[in-house]
Amino acid sequence: MTKNDSDEQSRPLKFGFALAPDFTLMAFSGFIEALRQAADVGDLSRPIWCSWTVMSHDLTPIKASCGLEVKPWETYRDPAEFDYVILVGGLVKSLENVPKELVNYLSLAVREGVTIIGLCTASYILAQSGFLKGRRCCLHWYHFQDFQERFPNVAPVMDELFIEDKGVITSPGGTASIDLALYLVARHFGDDRVVKVLRHLVLDWSRPMNHSQVPYLGDSREMVDQRVRKASIFMERNLSIPLSTEQMAKEVGVSSRQLERLFVSSVKDSPAGYFRKLRLRRAHWLLHHSDTSITEIALECGFNNSSHFAKRYKDFFGRSPSQSRETENGGKNRRGANLEPSV
User: Fold this and answer.
1) Is residue 57 within 8 Å of residue 104, measured between CB atoms?
2) Do 222 and 104 sit in the same domain of this protein?
3) pLDDT tops 70 at residue 218
4) For 185-208, what is each residue's pLDDT tens digit?
């Protein structure tokens, strides 16, 4: 429900940010920029509907993973003054350096019933501190396996943009932080504020919380079934392993026969056929954007040997791997090209 302007101006929505060492700048800046655009009309940046602050136990600048530094505006204040306390995580290797004062502040916020938001790898900190017990959390697909191994008693989800569960909201970070901010803007102020942010940030739309994190996977736009999406992500993370349909089905929690039906209905292909296409498209990208030998590419993409790979590749692309590399690259490989694979 949209509040009237006088109510909003008398009590802006308040956000308190806390930054972990080597936090990711995109998660932080994307969220805060969405708030800035939602907080005022035009581009005046007045904190009318939203206000925010950046806090720490001292005022020492905190370095982001990209090297830029953010100086906290103030030391920790009573978390009850905020509607949301936001923790921004970053590099996993730096999580052991999280100040105890930060964890203590989160504990105080939880005790006072303030909603906690964890961006990027903040889920690691929340899980380590016991705040995710009995809760689901949304994790970046890249960190999923590592997180599961560290915290087997937490239920992570890797194919959504954010999750809200019992007063804790988690997001994998990146541009998903903008979607989460817009979700909160819509909740408190209505869709008109969201439209304003989208226009000013030159965004097409606000993605829903269950939107896939990996939309570049093959035919993922047609993957409305979450089980098919989960199987597809499992394939993407294991391209070098010749997975069987039985293994995929076990990962998803269905029978092999049911998984076959789900894939045929969703992407008009079998799980094995779809997985082979992913591997071949990955191999295609490696041929054109690396100096890796064809034999090494075959093994990296889960083929037993180069001859088997060459046959499958020619059947799919209409030319052999060596012909493809020569024709499209003019005989020269572009090592380190900053391009994504077609999958």
Assistant:
1) no
2) no
3) no
4) 999 999 999 999 999 999 988 988
